[in-house]
Amino acid sequence: MNFITGNKHKVEEAEKIFLKFGLKIQHMNLGYMEPQGTLEEVARFGAKYAAQKLEEPVIVEDAGLFIKALNWFPGPYSAYVQDTLGNKGILKLMENVKNRYAEFRSVVGYCAPNAEPKIFLGVVKGRISNIEKGNLGFAFDPLFYPEDMDKTFGELTTHKKNQFSHRSRSLEQFARWYKNQSRD
C-alpha cells in the first residue's frame, strides 16, 4: 500500500497503527497540487490522482483544525494558516471568545486504479486553550485540549496522542475496512 504524503510524522503514525492490523505501507511523495475545498474533496482528488498516476492502490490523508466560533476556520486551510498566522494568530482571533469548541478532523482517502475513492473520517472534539501549552507534537497541538482532558495535544507524548488522535481514528477505520475487503 502506498501512502502519499510529504509529512514524515504522518508516515510514522500510520506505520504504528497499521502494524496492529498486519498492514505495511510504502511512503511516496508525489507533490501534487491540492484543490481548494473540504478535507473530503482534497482526499478524494489526491487519492484518485495518485492511484491513476502510479497505477496502484494508494491512501492519502488530509487534516485540519476546525474552530466553531470562527465558522470552522481554519479547516482545510490549516497548513496555510499555520504557516502564515501560526498559533499566536489563532489565539489573537480567539481573544474574548467564550465558546472555544473545536475539532481536529482527519480524512483518509483510499483509491485503487480505475475505481472511485473511499473516504474515512476521524474526529477528536475539544477546545482551544487561552495560551500555548506544551512543546510536543506540531502545528496547532499546543492550542488544543481534547475533550475531557486537562492537557493539550502539545503536552501529550506522541504515543499517548496517537492512541486517540483524529489521524489514528481515520487510519484505523481505513485499516479495519481494508482488512475486511481482503477477506471477501
From TrEMBL:
<feature type="binding site">
    <location>
        <begin position="138"/>
        <end position="141"/>
    </location>
    <ligand>
        <name>substrate</name>
    </ligand>
</feature>
<dbReference type="GO" id="GO:0009146">
    <property type="term" value="P:purine nucleoside triphosphate catabolic process"/>
</dbReference>
<feature type="binding site">
    <location>
        <position position="34"/>
    </location>
    <ligand>
        <name>Mg(2+)</name>
    </ligand>
</feature>
<comment type="subunit">
    <text>Homodimer.</text>
</comment>
<feature type="binding site">
    <location>
        <begin position="5"/>
        <end position="10"/>
    </location>
    <ligand>
        <name>substrate</name>
    </ligand>
</feature>
<feature type="binding site">
    <location>
        <position position="63"/>
    </location>
    <ligand>
        <name>substrate</name>
    </ligand>
</feature>
<feature type="binding site">
    <location>
        <begin position="166"/>
        <end position="167"/>
    </location>
    <ligand>
        <name>substrate</name>
    </ligand>
</feature>
<comment type="similarity">
    <text>Belongs to the HAM1 NTPase family.</text>
</comment>
<dbReference type="InterPro" id="IPR020922">
    <property type="entry name" value="dITP/XTP_pyrophosphatase"/>
</dbReference>
<feature type="binding site">
    <location>
        <position position="62"/>
    </location>
    <ligand>
        <name>Mg(2+)</name>
    </ligand>
</feature>
<comment type="function">
    <text>Pyrophosphatase that catalyzes the hydrolysis of nucleoside triphosphates to their monophosphate derivatives, with a high preference for the non-canonical purine nucleotides XTP (xanthosine triphosphate), dITP (deoxyinosine triphosphate) and ITP. Seems to function as a house-cleaning enzyme that removes non-canonical purine nucleotides from the nucleotide pool, thus preventing their incorporation into DNA/RNA and avoiding chromosomal lesions.</text>
</comment>
<keyword id="KW-0546">Nucleotide metabolism</keyword>
<dbReference type="GO" id="GO:0017111">
    <property type="term" value="F:ribonucleoside triphosphate phosphatase activity"/>
</dbReference>
<dbReference type="Pfam" id="PF01725">
    <property type="entry name" value="Ham1p_like"/>
</dbReference>
<dbReference type="GO" id="GO:0000166">
    <property type="term" value="F:nucleotide binding"/>
</dbReference>
<dbReference type="GO" id="GO:0005737">
    <property type="term" value="C:cytoplasm"/>
</dbReference>
<feature type="active site" description="Proton acceptor">
    <location>
        <position position="62"/>
    </location>
</feature>
<keyword id="KW-0460">Magnesium</keyword>
<feature type="binding site">
    <location>
        <position position="161"/>
    </location>
    <ligand>
        <name>substrate</name>
    </ligand>
</feature>
<dbReference type="GO" id="GO:0035870">
    <property type="term" value="F:dITP diphosphatase activity"/>
</dbReference>
<dbReference type="InterPro" id="IPR002637">
    <property type="entry name" value="RdgB/HAM1"/>
</dbReference>
<keyword id="KW-0378">Hydrolase</keyword>
<keyword id="KW-0547">Nucleotide-binding</keyword>
<dbReference type="GO" id="GO:0036222">
    <property type="term" value="F:XTP diphosphatase activity"/>
</dbReference>
<dbReference type="GO" id="GO:0046872">
    <property type="term" value="F:metal ion binding"/>
</dbReference>
<keyword id="KW-0479">Metal-binding</keyword>
<protein>
    <recommendedName>
        <fullName>dITP/XTP pyrophosphatase</fullName>
        <ecNumber>3.6.1.66</ecNumber>
    </recommendedName>
</protein>
<dbReference type="GO" id="GO:0009117">
    <property type="term" value="P:nucleotide metabolic process"/>
</dbReference>
<dbReference type="GO" id="GO:0036220">
    <property type="term" value="F:ITP diphosphatase activity"/>
</dbReference>
<dbReference type="InterPro" id="IPR029001">
    <property type="entry name" value="ITPase-like_fam"/>
</dbReference>
